[in-house]
Amino acid sequence: MRSLLALVMLSLCFVGHTQTSDEVKVGDELTLGSPSTSSYVHVDFPQKNFIIKRNGIADMKKMKGVPVTVVEKVEVNGFTKVTLARKDGKRFFRMKKQVTADLAEAFEAGELVL
Q: How far, rounded to the nearest angstrom, does the alpha carbon of residue 4 sit from its chain's CA centroid?
C-alpha cells in the first residue's frame, strides 16, 4: 500500500514538473536557484578558469536569486533549451550577456525557479 502511494505521488510530481517547463515562454521571468553542486550543471555558465582569464569574478554563490528573462526557447532532440538574459541588463560574471539552459533538468535540479 505504501509503495503504491509513493508511486502515485512520484508520478504526480513528474506531471507537475512537465507542465511548468511547458508553460515557460519567451519573455517570462525566472529566478536562478542554488546550484546542484559547487557550480551550475544545467545552466551553461562558462568554466571558472575562463571567467578569471577574462577578468570576471567567478563567484557562483552571487548568482543565486538573480532574476532572468527567457529570450529564446528551442526544442532540440526532445529537450527544451532556453536562452536567458539578466533582467537588470548586466552581464553574467562581467563577460556573457546571455547563457543557455536545459529547462527541464534545471527545474528538476532547482537551478531555475519560476
A: 32
**How far is residue 89 from each of residues 28, 30, 63, 84, 93, measured CA to CA in Å?**
15, 14, 14, 11, 12
pTM of the model: 0.76
Q: Torsion angle of alpha carbons 4, 7, 13, 19, nearest 10°? A: -100
Q: Give the torsion sign (CA, 43, 97, 67, 62).
A: positive
Distance CA 37, CA 111 (A): 10
Instruction: Specify the 3-state DSSP secondary structure of 40.
Output: coil
* Phi, psi angle pair for 69, to nearest 5°: -115, 150
Output the CA angle 25-29-32, nearest 5 degrees. Answer: 115
Pick the residue with more confidence: 112 or 57? 112
Domains along the chain? 2-113 (2.30.30)
